Amino acid sequence: MTTAAKPLARRHAEEHEDPRQYLMHDPLPRGQMNDMAMEAMHETNPIFWIVTAILAAIVVFSLGYEWYILIMQGQGTAGVLRPDYWGVFLVNTVFWIGISHAGTFISAILRVLKIESRRPFTRAAELMTTFGLVQAGLSIFMHLGRVWLVYWMFPIPNERRIWPDFHSPLMWDLMAITTYLLCSTMYLFLPLIPDLAMARDRTAGGWLKQFYKILALGFRGTEGEWKNLTTAMNIFAFAIIPVMFSVHTIVSWDFAMASRPGWSSTVFGPYFVIGALHSGMAAVAIVLFLLRSTMKHYKYFIRAEQLNTIGTLMLLVSMAWAYFYFNDYLVPWYGGDVWDKLVQEYTEKGPLAYLWYTMLIVNIAVPWATLWNRKWRETPWLLAIVGFLINVGMYLERYIIIPVGVTINRMPFTWRQYEPRIEIPMTIGTFALFLLLYMLASRIIPLIPVWEVQEGQEAHLIRKVGKAEVSTLSDLE
Amino acid sequence: MPETTTLLAMFEGLEPSAEGVDKLQQLGVNDDDMNIISGVPIKHTILGRPPAITYVSRIGLFGAILGMFLGIFFIYGIPYLYPLLVGGQPIFPVPQGFIITFEMTMLGLMGFSFIGLFVDSGFPSYTPKQYTPEISDGKIGVLFSCPASEREKFIDALKEAGAESIEPVEARHL
Amino acid sequence: MATELERSGVTNQIEEGPVGVWGMVIDQDLCTGCQACVAACSMENNVPIVGEEDANYGRYMHWIRIERLWESTEYPEVKMTSFQPMLCQQCHNAPCEPVCPVYASVHSLSEDLNLQVYNRCVGTRYCGNNCPYQVRAFNWLDYNDERVHPELVTLHNQMNPDVTVRRRGVMEKCTFCIQRIHKAEDKAKSEGREIREGEFTTACAQACPANAITFGRLDDPESQINQMAAANPSRAYHSLEEVRTLPRITYLTGGV
Question: N or C: which end of chain A has fewer CB within 10 A?
């Protein structure tokens, strides 16, 4: 017997040890990075404008014409009925608020946890938040029977001697979504100020220069300005996290407060929050893939490490989602309330059972089968496909909860199934509007927070520890 | 009063900037007469500067308290003014109190922090300012005022510290 | 109730004295399923006619419906349950009330009824989702408008002038014929007396040929409906009692 040690394992990961593959260890001069961001903003090809025109046409038709029909003729043009009073419009609302949680997760939670790989794409994610909330707000307005009177829900002084009713979860929704929309827009704007200053400095003239000059507020970068800005950003980063959790919890309470079997579940709060993160992370994966493939120079900024971060988070969140879904599933299955069991039976064995099976496959099986492998996570198109499938699954999850679950109630004489009608073009319209807003924003503001990337690069070093080259992050804040 | 002139020294990198600030402090420039303009935030200890004072957090806290009172008004003031009975629930509900107060407190905290940034930094301000576009390209600018007669001494000292350029700067539209 | 407002120290509410607490007794064994109550209610309260296609899809606007369910369909043991007229139960703890964001569904202090305020309703339909009895009807289209049903224009001549005609986007439901309640109350007030038993009744109770629906006062222990409920303790029940909405309608069933 020799004392020679056997090799412990095949070393697959040798090539991942080189720190220079990471963005934080691959610094370029700030001027050059600014150039890259500005060029990506200004250079377009005809395909971009063709796609923009098509999206604009879809938006005008579906959100202009079809919504006009919906308002003038009434909710009857949609597919809602008794007992399914809520349909796809509510599904859209929950879906878009879910997408919007991704931005806050990345720009707030990853910032607080000091996960450095987040630096290049915080703004791209925050834009998803703002534009997603716009779609959610539109979808809520779409489902109102008398939408021209929605201002009665606003708690402002009025002459009618009546204010809105805060007993109602819809009012909590209004407060929470308004807070979240305003705060995430402000949080989008704060780190944007120095980049707008950079754009202002690099734009010669014209209306674009005026636009940047006005929005940059006269920012120069003095010590006082940076101190104020970073203090405000820190307050926002910490404070917007509980707001993010509370917003989707409150949205879930729209359903949990109802005395409907299948809806009145105490686990809905955290279940919906995790569901929001699930679809949000998946949407970020799609956005990262699209940005990397369509925007010039973005392959420098969005690298394998960013995709790896998102892919790992997608896997973790899908496990958490499976945990909460199992919680929500087990209790009615075990017995007790006959009506809860009937809802479950209708979901699993009814005419729409294929939706339920699809949901389970794409929400759990697909991420668990693909995202464990680092190489696959770092493949942009594969991650984007998994992200797309997860989003389909999460849309189906909300569809199952709202229009399918609401078919079963305690009065069997009323049970009828919901079929979406005008909701279909209007849903397509919200997706088109989201993409359109995103594409137009990519022309006007730099999507990469270049100053944050440089800040991170300055704080990172490679030092030698023994024979290894090791990445070091110094606390320069 | 001796005539003072304002100069802007441009440095590339944190080490030369720290040396330059050090030289200026040795030559007797007050910390208040110096300002660092940069494209990324620089911790004050790196350059040997006194910590900057910010009122943003105090304004934010004030906003949080305002938001809390707004939330309490929504959930308890409104039913007090216009009570209506709904569903066997108490007129002054307790759980809704937590929800609405929390949301409005957070809105106040963040909204007023945002406003605090504007107020404390004097945003928006479109008057002419001392600035050069190289700063947003990553260079660090040290803006200082010195007696006009000793200009040469200061310029030489900073060149020794590694400054790329030291120029008098006029306020211009950004 | 009034005592709750007093207890909470609120002093500036508009309050009429308790004029009456209204309830119903419905005897399912007498009900023949003829739907005369449905027709009478629709005519009394200007309930729009929706049309066959929409009603089949689930958009029927009836404020009262006769539920007919099969206990078993295996021949030869084909058995139906007794007919169940289902209408707004005017719950004391109505789940439809706290969920309305604009106070369009509130509880009346004086009549102890669940009120639906048509001109305040914004159409969120949360109340419809939250009603365990699913008795709330939403105006999905302008069914009363001649552009939707041009063939029914002449029916507008039979509308009840005491009741508003609702437009699209507004939720509605059974009101225990509150227009008749108010008419009787006003008459009694002007004559300086209390409302007499049997002075008026709801449209459904009036139309029922089998006298299956009886409407009356719950706060008077001598009233007919209280006597009926007391005389049939084993047959009396509240619908969906386990949800604890404390409804005002007592059903009698179980065979004579």
Answer: N
A11 vs A98, higher pLDDT: A98
Question: Does any CB of chain C come closer than 8 Å to the CB of residue B94?
Answer: no
Is the CB of C237 inside 8 Å of chain A's CB atoms? no
- Which of A179, A222, A229 is the closest to B37 by Cβ? A222
Q: Which of C8, C12, C95 is facing B87, going by the closest CB pair?
A: C95
Contacts of A409 in chain C (CB under 8 A): 132, 134
Report how many domains make up chain C.
1
Q: Which residue out of A168, A173, A401 would a mutagenesis test of the C interface target, given it has the greatest number of C Cβ atoms within 10 Å?
A: A168
Give first-to-last CA distance, chain B, whole Å.
31
The pTM of this model reads 0.93
How open is the CA angle C42-C47-C51, to the nearest 5 degrees?
Answer: 95
Which of helix, strand or coil describes residue C85? strand
Question: In a 3-state reduction of DSSP, which class is residue A360?
Answer: helix
pLDDT tens for each residue of C61-72: 999 999 998 888
Q: Own/partner pairs for C70-77, CB < 8 Å, 24+ apart?
A: none
CATH number, domain containing residue C34: 3.30.70.20
- Domain containing A90 equals 28-152+166-473
Ordered by where they begin, the domains of chain B are: 4-52+127-168 (3.30.70.120), 56-121 (no CATH)
- Closest CA in chain C for residue A167: C98
Average pLDDT over residues C5-24: 55
Which chain A residue shows the shortest CA-CA distance from C70? A413
Q: What percent of chain B has pLDDT over 90?
A: 47
**B56: which chain A residues are within 8 Å (Cβ-Cβ)?**
228, 231-232, 235
Say whether C8 and B87 touch across the interface (CB within 8 A): no
Q: Does C51 touch chain A (CB under 8 A)?
A: no
- Chain B residues whose beta carbon lies within 8 Å of the beta carbon of residue A202: 133, 136
* Residue B20 · residue B11 · CB < 8 Å: yes
Place of tokens 């991420």: A367
In a domain, C34, yes or no: yes
Residue A170 lies in a domain: yes
Chain A contact for C169 (CB, 8 A cutoff): yes
Query: Please, what is the average pLDDT of chain A?
Result: 92
Name which residue leads in pLDDT, A364 or C10.
A364
Phi, psi torsion values for B169, nearest 5 degrees: -125, 135
**Is residue C8's pLDDT more than 70?**
no
Report whether A315 contacts A386 (CB < 8 A): no
Provide the chain C residues 86-105 that lie in CB contact (below 8 A) with chain B: 92-100, 103, 105
Q: Which value does ipTM take for this structure?
A: 0.94
Domain that holds residue C89: 15-252
CB pair distance less than 8 Å for C58 and A413: no
Give me the total of CB pairs closer than 8 Å, taking one residue from chain A and one from chain B: 189
Domain membership of residue C6 (yes or no) is no
Q: Rounded CA gap, B126 and B173, in Å?
A: 7
B93: closest CA of chain C, how far (Å) = 11
Number of domains in chain A: 1
What pLDDT does C193 receive?
Answer: 84
| Chain C contact partners (≥3 CB pairs within 8 A) | A, B
pLDDT per position as a tens digit, B98-156: 999 999 999 999 999 999 999 999 989 999 998 999 898 889 999 998 888 888 888 98
At residue B83, the pLDDT reads 87
- In tens, the pLDDT along A137-169 reads 999 999 999 999 999 999 998 888 889 999 999
Q: What distance in Å separates the CA atoms of residue A103 and residue A111, rounded to the nearest whole number?
A: 11
Residue C16 has pLDDT above 50, yes or no: no
Which residues of chain A have a CB within 8 Å of the CB of B79?
Answer: 166
Q: CB–CB of A130/A122 below 8 Å?
A: no
Interface A-C, measured as beta-carbon pairs within 8 A, has a size of 142
Q: From the CB of residue A403, how many other CB atoms can be counted at a distance below 10 Å?
A: 24
Length of chain C: 256
